[in-house]
Specification:
elongated; four-stranded antiparallel β-sheet
Length: 285
């Protein structure tokens, strides 16, 4: 999903936003022949993500700037670790610094938070997945960061699968049709390859949804006891997803109920940027 062309397009837009008419500070304070060497350094522990995106910010600013990635996407690092080295014309290094850092900090923050959730469900069969609660225009970047943290991606967009939520069901059944009838009618019109997921918020909705032959049932904002009951009721007839208010403190208890997937919007909408810095080397000799 995150292609080189997509990275170039988004990073170029970010660079243009940051320096629409050039970098006045670097152009007027730094001479044209100055060269800079710098390290991307971790200030805290985390999982790295966005290495290629970081490098692209410098390449698009000045192709003469070289970036060497020391740590690969998906690897844990500790405070003080050098994640990448940057060298080349000083103006280019300084102009691209903030945009490169913004992407690396944001993506590494998402990867790190995802890694913490994944660790909490270790030794269970439950997968941690993201949601569509992403930053507009940056979904492919944030989804890549989730994968780097060991998580899975939910449907990428509205075009990828049918996912009937509470508002869809309310409209579908407004004329008195049962959920099963409404879903079966929709299935008759859908391509046979389309996956169907349905969100339920009550246990008594499950049998109707199962009768429609859907592939996944989302148990939304269920208590732990309700999740356990729902898993037993579904009994392998559909993939079971749990969602709604999932935190690091609750995710393991949710996993041990036997759900197949836990979707966590917080992975992308609430992850904080990781503290990374670009430290320039000063040659005193």
């Amino acid at each position: 999903m995150l292609t080189r062309a997509h990275i170039d397009r988004v990073v170029a837009a970010a660079l243009e936003e940051d320096a629409p008419w050039g970098d006045l500070t670097s152009e007027y304070l730094i001479d044209e022949i100055s060269v800079a060497r710098a390290d991307l350094v971790a200030r805290e522990r985390g999982i790295f993500s966005g290495g290629e995106v970081f490098a692209t910010a410098f390449r698009l600013t000045d192709p003469r700037v070289e970036v060497e990635l020391v740590v690969a996407d998906g690897e844990w690092f500790d405070p003080g670790d050098v994640l990448a080295t940057v060298s080349g014309p000083a103006r280019g290094v300084l102009t691209a610094e903030r945009i490169g850092l913004n992407f690396a900090q944001r993506m590494s923050g998402i990867a790190t938070l995802t890694g913490l959730f994944v660790a909490e469900v270790a030794e269970t069969a439950t997968r941690i997945a993201d949601t569509r609660k992403t930053t507009p225009g940056l979904r492919a970047f944030e989804r890549k960061a989730v994968r780097d943290g060991g998580g899975r991606n939910h449907r990428y967009s509205l075009s990828d699968a049918v996912m009937a939520k509470d508002n869809h069901l309310a409209i579908l059944t407004r004329d008195g049709a049962s959920i099963a009838e409404a879903l079966q009618e929709a299935k008759r019109r859908l391509p046979h390859t389309a996956h169907i997921e349905v969100e339920v918020d009550r246990l008594d909705q499950i049998e109707d949804v199962l009768a429609a032959g859907v592939g996944t049932i989302m148990l939304d904002n269920f208590s732990i006891d309700e999740l356990r009951t729902g898993v037993a009721q579904i009994a392998g007839r559909a993939t079971v997803e749990a969602s709604g208010g999932v935190t690091l403190e609750t995710v393991r208890a949710i996993a041990v109920t036997g759900v197949d997937v836990i979707s966590v919007g917080a992975l992308t909408h609430s992850a904080r940027a990781l503290d990374l810095g670009l430290d320039v080397h000063i040659d005193t000799h």
